[in-house]
Amino acid sequence: MTAIPRTTPTQSAAVPRVRPAPPQGPPAEDLSPPRPHHHGAEGLPDAGASWTTGQRVRLVLVLGVLVALGPLTIDMYLPALPTIGEQLLATQAQAQLTLTGLLAGLALGQLVLGPLSDRYGRRKVLISGVVTHSVASVLCALAPSIEFLTAARVLQGVASAASAVVALAVVRDLFSGVAAARTLSRLTLVMGAAPIVAPTLGGLLLTSTSWRGVFVALAIFAVVLVGVAAKLLPETLPVERRRTGGAVDVLRTYGSLLHDRRFVGLVLVAGLSFSIMFAYISGSSFVLQDLYGLSQQQFALAFGAGAVLLIGATQLNPTLAERFHPVRVMQGGLLAALALTTLLLVLVVTETGGLLGLLVPLWLTLGAVGFVLPNGPALALTRHGRAAGTAAAVLGCTQFGIGAMAAPVVGLVGGGAVGMVAVMVGAAALAVTVLMLVVQPKVLDDRAPARVAAAAV
């Protein structure tokens, strides 16, 4: 793999300019995909518009490997979660808090690291975070109690936030609109392999080592990623575009983001979609192993099958986003997720269909969510390219914050299959409500057909 060439403002100057369509309202209210002149919603040039296909593929591979650190950290220890509870004398709810702590760290860490990446550049923040992740993984491996492990997982989450927020910011530095949605979909293909590999890899490691060895493996992987980031990831935020203000400027930027109604709506939809997925992630190991008797390796295979459908949907998404408006694709995915989770709740409550009656609707639900995850973030970030790191921080904090709440809520409503599915239904219903009342797909779809954006991809 060769290093990706650094991008300068002059690289996009060679792209032929086309007279833009007359503006409709203030820039922050324009969710239409970018016009063929490769400028985002704020008039910023898409610096990656002149990149070759090979350069874009290398970027996706590099970012995918880096972002995979988060899913691996979340999923790799899942097969051992019941065992961790037994060995550290913890209840199921306490064991699940190790996942909640990680997600909380991921959420809060992005609020700090996002603005820092806007000020100091993407590479410095990313490399520092990955180094910290390696240290936190060692602490997890040495944890003498469930409380210590939970605290170390919080630190692990904060460190993982660096790769999550920087990857989104890098995509926005280079692309906007449907081009960003396409890149995020391809990125999901690479990093989506992590949920498939992670439980399987964790299960394989558990055949020869304890759950502590899983965290040692994560520490080693983080060390490797430091070298990948240092050698292969270019700095995509030029010095002249970096923010120079202090804390007051950061707060002012957050305030402007939160005053953008549709940005907030898109962020909430993305967060609630994440909570559908994380309710499944937090409850599935207990449901499938304790209630349905699957072994650690069988659970890993079942978990991976759902990830395959999720990835497949994200890869079909760019084609649909070019044919229809991305917000329409997102709307269809959410409505399908609501219908499928409602059906699943009925099947679980009535104890109909057995294991397949649980797994098949679960897998299809993950596929439906795959049509939401790339489009929500892409449309939200397109609105605020000048503060991409801070906008990505709000997005990531909301996604992982709401996801973190899903895990304990599953336990509070009784745990088991009914509790897990009930949370998924509630999250899907709330996401559909926010989309229809706040984001208002019809208004956005009427602004400009997504087909116009095809030339920008």
Question: What key attributes describe this structure?
Answer:
457 residues, mainly alpha, Growth Hormone, Chain: A, 17 helices, 0% strand, globular, disordered C terminus
Order of helices and strands: HHHHHHHHHHHHHHHHH
What is the share of helical residues? Answer: over 70%
Largest β sheet strand count, sense and barrel closure: none
CATH topology name: Growth Hormone, Chain: A
Give the amount of beta strand, in percent. under 5%
**CATH architecture descriptor text:** Up-down Bundle
The averaged pLDDT comes out at 81
**Which shape, going by the Cα principal axes?**
globular
State the helix count.
17
Gap between N and C termini, in Å?
23 Å
Alpha-carbon Rg, integer: 21 Å
Low-confidence stretches: 5-41, 447-457
**CATH level-4 homologous superfamily:** MFS general substrate transporter like domains
Structural class estimated from helices and strands = mainly alpha
CATH classification class: Mainly Alpha
Describe this structure in words.
There is one protein chain. With 457 residues, the protein is mainly α. It has one domain: MFS general substrate transporter like domains (Growth Hormone, Chain: A), CATH 1.20.1250. Helix content is 73%, strand content 0%. It is built from 17 helices and no strands. The chain is globular, with a radius of gyration of 21 Å. 56% of the residues are buried. The model is unreliable at 5-41 and 447-457 (pLDDT under 50).
